[in-house]
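Morning run. Coffee first, then this:
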Amino acid sequence: MSQYTPDSEAAVEEIVRAARARSEPLEIAGGGGKRALGRPVQAAATLSLGKLAGITLYEPSELVIAAKAGTPLAEIEARLKQQGQRLPFDPPRLHRLYGGDRDTASIGAVVASNLSGPRRVHAGAARDSLIGVRFVNGAGETVKSGGRVMKNVTGLDLVKLMSGAFGTLGVLTEVTFKALPAPETEATLVFEGLDDHQAVACLSAGLGSPWEVTGAAHLPAVAGAPARTLLRLEGFETQMAYRGKALGDALAGFGGCDILRGADSAARWAAIGELEPLAAHDDEAVWKVSTTPNKAPEVAAAIRAATGARLYYDWGGGLIWVAVPAEGDAGAAAIRAALSDAGGHATCMRAPDEIRAAIAVFEPQPEPVMALTRKLKETFDPDRVLNPGRMYAGV
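And here it is:
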């Protein structure tokens, strides 16, 4: 397979135009760490954005940072940290899921897959902090959307559209984010021994309290370790003792709690964001299951009964990470059956190529929505040059 490594937006345009003229589909890659996310792409060549890197704008006083799509996430986070700032949505690397070096994860891949960590429950998804994009469409034309400020949008919001499009509508070349000040410290309340229903009730109560919970996860019991239910607080050191006690008192009906502080709390949430509690084996498929928190325990129970899955909850119970044997349909039918009454959607985040080629990796869409998806692909990439079939077969 050929590989193109452009170092400028103009070079990306040229490569896409040439590929279109040759009817040569391209697989789009950033650092290359997320190529196993989505359906396998049947392409004659790879367009790698690793050389299209560098921070192009940083205004600390305006809380705005822009970077070329191939810029390592680690570089952006380090630059923000120098000014006491951060990206709001806790972006994960998922290198334990896909392999590779955690420091090669690119900001373009984060945007293309709309990856968000545990803080999403408080700060929103990656697309909610994204305020500008530049991308090259399937005709080899550069499109710019958004800017340096958050504002209301009428018509088609291309910034939000490109986040989560998995490179099927355009090749991202530059992205602009709104940053936020980083907190002085953090603390995590840890309740032990709650079952899934009790845990989700505890998480919901914490998120509904006035104490600004920024992380809410439940790790069911495993051999040698009790179930743990975690709620994170972030802010000034002078606030933390008061807010931690107030939240603990508000949740006293769920039992006593321990408190992790500072670096211990940060390490625990970093592990949760990188799926370490799932401890997924190489021979397991991994699913991301989203539903309403009050229905999550029933959904989880049904998945466990049908597949023997191991799992844990994030986002207050609204997200269930699931590991099942990577055989047959990797649990696709059972997982989606469990969601049929509760509502929600499931995405296969990892499975062997042959399984991902045979199942619906992303939640199947109703036909009217699928027709719109096809129309968008036709509009932005009429000859299906960019990541064809990455999200849906034939699109």
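The mean pLDDT is 94. Good start to the day.
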